[in-house]
Amino acid sequence: MSTDAGGSPMAGPPPPGYPPSSYSPPDYQGPPPPAYQGYPPPAYQRYPPPGYPPPGYPPPGYGPPPGYGPPPGYGPQGGYPPPGYPPPGYAPYGYPPGYGPPPIAQAIKPGVIPLRPLGLSDIFNGAVAYIRANPKATLGLTTIVVVATQLLALILSVGPLAAAGELTSTLSGGQVPTGVLVGSSVSSFAGYGATWLSGILLTGMLTVVVGRAVFGAGITIGEAWQRLRPRLWALIGFALLEGIGAALIIGVGFGVVVGIGYAVNGVAAAVVGVALGLALLALMVYLGTMLAFTPSIIVLERLQIFPAISRSFKLVRNDFWRVFGIWLLGQIVAGLVAGAVAVPFSIGGQILLISASSTVSALIAIVLLTVGSAIGQIITAPFTAGVVVLLYTDRRIRAEALDLVLQTGAAFGPGAPADSTDHLWLTRQS
């Protein structure tokens, strides 16, 4: 290699395989090759240089530098929060964590019913619950009254015939002396009167028991009698008035039919009798439903007969069909239960009665029939009385908001004095 005067190396010929330093490619004036028009060479389009990944892929085996993340202050564009998060400034939907919907307020239930408007199940369940809560003052009281009444009625109706030896003749349809027949009829009428009075007494005392059971308070038979005794004559007077009214309605209807039969003919009397009978039946059902609450009002509100009748009409008037339907359903349920209980006694008594050949066997048959009837009445009488009193309570709750008044007594608890709860029934709208 040679140098110039300044000691710098002189440009010499390049090594073999290298172009001269002053060499440049000649200008190419012709068209590009066909495969290269408008496109890069294929080798540079598909494959990167050796050791480099394809475009859009990171080098293999390398991740992001440690300690680095997305640039701070950046999030989803357009002002929208990430998926699953509420917008800024808004609370999440639903209740906050650890909280749920507010609990539903439950009606106060100090005794056998909740202190709110009652449904059918509330009334029926309450009528059963007060019997279970106080069996001595319900089933025990009913047993005493029913057994005593049935025994008295049996003696008065059958005793004269059995004493005269005419019991089997009477049962078989034979001739009975007039004196014996009259005596038996009078004594039977006395027995029916005793049964009627005992029914009034039982209804009144059971009304007192239910009135206490509403507050969850117990009561003895003696206490129930003390509570009823001042109201007993008013109950008897109402029952007499009700019986006289029913007798007058039936008597007037019967007289009209008989008069038409004499004045016209039997066919016209029969037609009028059927139509009039249905009308009178509807009238008696209507009056019986409108007067259904009168005994409860006399006992619990301590009203006299005619004010109690007027108040019963007022309570039932705006809800007649509901009162009638629930009362009727209660009577049907009680009748089915009483009939089911009395079936074995009825079958046995009827068999003995048909084959009775002596006074003793006839008496046994009659006793069996009476026992079956008494057991059915013992079971169902408290239930039907409870249905009526609780239905009366429901009507007062709906019409007068009595539940708010009764809650005052519920605040005292089951151990409250009797006067502190009994007087709450006296609160009424004029």
UniProtKB/TrEMBL annotation:
Q: Does the keyword Transmembrane apply?
A: yes
The alphabetical list of record keywords is: Membrane, Transmembrane, Transmembrane helix
Q: What is the lineage of its organism?
A: Bacteria, Bacillati, Actinomycetota, Actinomycetes, Mycobacteriales
* Protein's UniProt name: Glycerophosphoryl diester phosphodiesterase family protein
**Which organism is this entry from?**
Mycolicibacterium moriokaense
Q: Where is the composition biased (Low complexity)?
A: 1-10
According to the record, the signal peptide region is none
* Ranges annotated as spanning the membrane: 139-163, 196-220, 232-261, 267-300, 320-343, 363-392
- Per UniProt, the ranges with Pro residues bias are 11-81
